[in-house]
Amino acid sequence: PILPMTGALPSGDPTNATTSFTNTGEVAQAGYYSAESNLPNTITSQFAETDHSAMGRFTFPKTTQADFLIKLMDSQTNDYNPKVKIVGHNEVEGQVTTGQFCGEGVNGQQTQLYTVHFSIVFSRGFTASQIVTSSGSPDAVFLTFNTMKDPVVQAKVGISYVSDANAQLNWQTENRAWNFNSIKGAAQLAWNQLLGKIKVAGGSYAQTQ
Length: 209
What we know:
Blueprint: E1 2-6, E2 21-29, E3 32-37, E4 43-49, E5 53-59, E6 66-71, E7 80-87, E8 91-99, E9 106-107, E10 110-111, E11 113-122, E12 128-134, E13 137-145, E14 152-160, H1 164-174, H2 180-195, H3 205-208
């Protein structure tokens, strides 16, 4: 989970940190999602996707403390062996192992654990970065941006079950430019082509729906 927020790093366990959220103005479409959170210092979050990566566009209020809290220990089940690295001034990569769906640890001698590798790159450099740890293991990453002049921060995210490098390769291959509208348009076109294989006509709108 990646939580956009403003202000200082919340005290206590970062996994428990939340912000306010509203369904007012929420948009959910095939290939696109948008919603507002962090009220009253409202942040608008928009998302689109490619086959193997995602892109986010976040519009913050004017502040020197526009943040992202990347949670490493927030699965529905247990998390193991989290690793994270801050790369340069605008990228984060790492991994976490989780699984055991419905409490099932082993099925037919096959472990139900899996490791997710991730790579996140931002459209500009952060002004501060911090790895939040407890008991020697990373719990979260806290990144800060300055949005006084430009309120928009974009992010590309790739995941992989193979390696951090493959996670990075996924967004590098399918999402090289910083063009959110292009990614959104391509995603919606792909969904329309798929869903458009079935067409209905006749009767009222309610009936065809």
